[in-house]
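Hi support team,

I submitted a single chain yesterday and got back a structure, but I'm not sure I'm reading the token output correctly. Could someone confirm the output below corresponds to the sequence I sent? I've pasted both exactly as they appear in my results page.

Thanks,
R.
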Amino acid sequence: MRFALEEVNRRYDLLPNITMGFQVYDTCAALRKEMVATLQMLAGQTEAIPNYSCQKTSRLAAVLGHSLSMTSIHMAHMLGLYRFPQISHYSTSSALSDRTQFPSFFRTVPSDSFQSQGLAQLVLHFGWNWVGLIATGNDNGIQGIQVIKQEILKAGACVAFTEFIQSNLLDKNIPFLTKVIKNSSARVVVIFSNDLFFALLLDEMIKQNVTGKTFVASETWSTSTILLADKYSTLLAGSIGFAFHSSTIPGFRQYLTSVRPSTLENNLSKAFWERMFGCKFNDTKNVSGSWNGPTKICTGNEDLQGVENVYTDVSSLRSSYNIYTSVQVIAKALHDLYECEEGRGPFYRRSCASIKHFKPWQLRHYLQNVHVQLSNGREVLFDRNGDLPAVYDIVNWQLGLDGVMKQIKVGSYDITAGDGNFFTINIGAVKWATGTSQVPISVCRQSCPPGFRKAAREGEPVCCSQCVPCPQGAISNETDSVECLECSWDTWPNSQKDKCLPKTTEFLSYEEPLGTTLTATSAMSSTIPISILGLFIHYKNTPIVRANNYSLSCLLLVSISLCFLSSLNFIGSPQVEKCLIRQVAFGMVFALCISCILAKTVMVVFAFMATKPDSSLRKWTNARVSYVIVLICSLVQFILCMLWISISPPFPEKNIITQPGIILLECNEGSPTAFWCMLGYLGLLSTISFVVAFLARRLPDSFNEAKFITFSMLAFLSVWVSYIPASVSTRGQYVVAMEVFAILSSSWALVLCMFAPKCFIIIFRPNMNSREHLLAKDKS
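Hi R., thanks for writing in. Yes, this is the structure output for that exact sequence:
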């Protein structure tokens, strides 16, 4: 303070021809003396006289102090009655920001409310979402820790415990607090307490062998020298927290080293000198109280330049810099009051205040609006609550190779940062208890990786939630996602469920082995009926061909060949035209095929029933009857198919429901009812043919034609009856493959059961292909 005042008084651009002085009141930390001293300052007398002021030779401009928040509150209540400016360099209680109760209180140190918010953000900055909170049980501690807790919970993190150290040095609750810390799974603990009370807790932690905890420090102990004791080193190594912003004051070290006992003239300065240089003044008795070595006479001119200790170390001034700032602020406010031009002033009728006769409330106005730029470039201006913008240093407690604990500045916290990034931390400079730069982990559970979401556990804090895999079709691409995101209809999660990939499309392709096999089988199979047809044409005049209705047999062979070829419509990418005709073509050619078989069966029955003399059924054995049966049966199927196409035609679609993760390119049948009616009609024709052939199986037919029809229809029906449950239980391209297989199997059943025996006789048993053999068989 003396240095700052002398610096102001030497300047010509600040309060010219006006000298600033000071008066010090040492109250010995006694509240009663502090109140008395406050009244003495207001009265300007050696006695405390309320509501009386006698300041003749000099004017009291402002009061600097107190350092303790509780004392500042009592002083501010008294000084506020008179709107007398009060500036504290160390009182951090957030209660002092209440302008209603403390209208003239200012401070050059940040409020605890800023610190509490900053400590919470520091915890969140390092990703700690499961922390413990310890604070002193006074108003400052309770208010400060509640703000920290609110900010942590608001950000989605959790508090493992909140405990308080009672405000006395005989706190019997310390062992219990230590057990809470030891048994908690939280590895990070915020300590909002001063160093004396925290030391009690550390002593008990040493007794109970508590390890593996990282402490977050409030400014009240982050730069403590008491806690630098070796016994605390293993516990406090790696601690990190806030400290008052540090800076240097140009010329201050030279000023300190130029001090001589003669300039101070008090017993404390002589005691300091004797301890510093290990000497003794002639006119004093061992005032230092601790020097027992050889007596050396102090001259008072010893040089402090070569001394290196806490007194001469001005590299990181904190509270001292706040005092320096307070003096600069008052000087600038007085200068602004001094330079006021009448008629342009801030008071009634634009008046100004006189520098010799100003009122306390008038200086308070200038203090509220002061704007000072300090030597380090920092701008100082108060907000409406008398607080400065919060700027803190972030300090890290590091254990050196020599075993000595050091408090290293590793960053800063500045709420005036324009980009909103309040933290500036050199992560590489931070060392944790492990001696590395790896940030310790303090979570109730490990983070949920991408592909999972957080789900609350009943009866536990939200931070202790469990990780649940994202459901089918959803992803999470961030750590600790609260919910999973659904993929779009044409995308699907990858195996890690952290990104959506385009779905694969699937259909029965010609290029795939299954599609290639079915295509080749269909094409080759279609040649078999044509070959048999050629054989029948070549042997059309032989008894076996003529006896089996040559014309119907040729039509049946052509229709079977078309049945084989109709399966090709089901292979390949579904197109509009292909979807429209494939089931219709399948239904029509099979209807034609079964109609031919039905006609053959009916004609066999009519032929034997007409052998009786004067039978009226002889006229039904004409070949035209068989053609009418084929035409009528095929026409009914044709009408069903035309109605289907007209009302609800099949169309290609992308099926994303049947197989998750795959887009099935398939033909939607349009009307399932129409499809099953078409298939059911085929079943009806087949059943009629089967029943009629079965009833006629014992007729003396040549080469057992009725029996062959019975076997062929039995095989045909067996294939399609089996197809129904198989198609229902199959998915994707295999549904189409199943239908193709059913077409091929049923077609082969007709070829083998009806034509294989005849071909065998024609080719390998020509002696049986004769009229004599036919008649002999008939006779037998």
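A quick pointer for reading it: The longest strand covers residues 405-414. Let us know if anything else looks off.

Best,
Support desk
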